[in-house]
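Sample pair:
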Amino acid sequence: MLTKRRLAKYALLLIVGTYVFVLALTEVYIKPRSDQSPNHEGVGKGKESARDDSMSQGRLIPTKAANHFQPGPGVKTKEKSVENSKNQLARLKEMNDELLKQFLEEFPEMRDVYSPSKASAQDRLTPECGLGGSSRRDRSSPAAANLPLAPPVFYPLSTGQKQNKGMPGMDLNALGQGHSCKPTEKRWANQCCRTVYFLGGGKCGSTSLALLLKHNMSSLDHFDPTSGFADGGKEPCWALTAGNERDFYSKFKQCQQPRYMCGSSSSEVGLNQPHNLMRPHQSRHEMGSKTVVLDGCPRYSKAMSARKIVCADPDAKFVMLVRDPLLRTISDHNDHMIRGSGKTRGLSEKDRRTLSTRSLTLSDYRSILSNFLLFVPPENILIVQSEFLLAEKYVQHIMTQVQNHYQIPNRQVRYVKSNANSDDSKYTLPSKTSFELSLSKLCPKSLGFFKLVGYSFDWLLNPNDPRAMSNYQTIQGDYNL
């Protein structure tokens, strides 16, 4: 039964509901009066002006057409991300310029090689990927032609953003579906030790680099306790296994000490290390005082390994050794032929001169680096040309840069030649057909790598390169591969 009291109650609720509804519509669809002067503050502003005012106050404004919110200041936008990338690129270029400057000061005779006019005049900087003497250039060749020659060591400039959507390194808190860190992996750190890594590097001098970093120069068979590294095997490859970094650290006695026993003198820390390569909350003493565990695995190449490493240590640092990709492939092939199983060693003469697809994998530097740049900031990856590292003249200079990057004490080293397959009597050069077939696969990938890192390399990428002939055999009745 309707009473006067109930009618009054319903009427009041209807009035309140109507008022709220009208107020909501007014907020979204409010229109400015056309007779208001634009010269008066807060008067006569249209939707765009109103949106600008609200953004300046840090609020989110609903828009009718797009049905979404426009971000105010403090909200990361695409423009802001592009600006940050430009700033980072400028910092990386500045760091690389300084590295090259130091190299040329020590070796002034190399100035001519790195002069812009000299670099642009080299035909090898505009390689052709066609075979059989074809003059057709790869589509990416013109872009690579304008790149400077790579210095001995440098940080990747990550100019190929289309190939590396994660540049300049992905925030762990923003990892996409399927890439989240497991609770057991997240940001665990040993109290006494920190881990550094090789990135790829198989048949690029990784064994020599590990010896230079960790061993006694007067007796390479012995570990040097003053090197700053923990004593242990070269290739734990923990991120390729089912284990975690905690299990990896447990294998090194230096990393099992109580916390009060950790530390070293601040004088042991490399003082040339750039500040931006350290954690913001860590001093040089704190970073350098920790014993370094080297995972010199030469097979890290996949994004899943990068994610596993970075989930355990977001500040992990890498050294990526690169070598002429085709020469690396030949060396890798021979490594399997010489040190492989009896079945491998017993392959036919034809198969021994046929470079396998497996041997090409670690020569695809573009894919390897792109996989890791999805997770690792480019300033945490130092690229080293192994041709310089394995030349006696340059080895000390290159090692100093590597030591600074890893933030370990600088020490004197000497030239090391190790694991030289080319000295083995079983070393076999591929057939010309196999050589050119492999080159046709590697050349486009190498040009993509040039664009990704912002530098060009003096590699064998053209079958007509005069240096090519000494790296294959012309066989009577060459194999039809």
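The chain is about 35% helix and 5% strand.
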